Amino acid sequence: MKPYAQYCPIAKTAEILGDRWSILILRDMLVGTSRFNDLARGLPGISRTLLVKRLTHLRASGLVVRTDDGYQLTRAGLDLRTLVFSMAEWGARWAFPEPSEEDLDPDLLVWWIHGQVDRPGDSTAPRVVVQIEFSDPSSWYWLVIEPGDVSVCLTDPGFDVDIVMRSSLRTMYSVWMGFQDLGTALRSGDITLDGSSALVRRFPSWLRLSPVNPAVRAARRGA
Known about the structure:
This protein is an alpha+beta fold. The chain folds into 2 domains: 9-79, Arc Repressor Mutant, subunit A (Orthogonal Bundle); 101-214, SCP2 sterol-binding domain (Nonspecific Lipid-transfer Protein, Chain A, 2-Layer Sandwich). It has 11 helices and 7 strands. It has helices spanning 9-17, 22-30, 36-42, 48-60, 75-78, 81-94, 106-115, 169-177, 182-188, 197-206, 213-222; strands at 64-67, 70-73, 128-135, 139-146, 149-153, 163-168, 191-195. The strands form 2 sheets. It has a 5-stranded mixed sheet with strand order 5-4-3-6-7. Helix 6 crosses helix 11 (213-222). The protein is globular, with a radius of gyration of 19 Å. The two termini are 37 Å apart. The model has no long low-confidence stretch (mean pLDDT 94).
């Protein structure tokens, strides 16, 4: 972006971070995304050409370095965590109304969910397959959860399904972001889990929900 020509640290920071998509790239990298294809999948509105351009800019600014298998935040990039998630706190309080239909992207939500599944070591089930069924509109996805890896499948991967999770898309977004408690949604039947009783009991504890969930919940309590 064009420099502001002001000798001020706020202006200099805005010159680095003010381009469209830069903050969201950093958001995703701060929660663990490092590969180019994964960054692209988590930012469905950005072209691959523009993603390359933004990553090149962040590298030139000293926030990101190229690695053998992707990208990594530098110390300066990691130091942006407080700034980026302070934006979540402000946004949750002042700029986060009920979602419009165009905000509710099932592909993106499942991609976010897969990145927040934290399954503890469990030798009794080397692979766990979760089938996710959204209503309004109807769409199905599969999470293949294996030790150390979680994959998203848009078509049936051909494995036995251990858990079926059903919800409306709007309800799952509400729980994911912090407008509604997961336990409450399960007890009310807004979200249902069917399958192996042992895995159904454990699965909610594996789902860490959105990194901005605490900010949204705090904003709602404050309101």
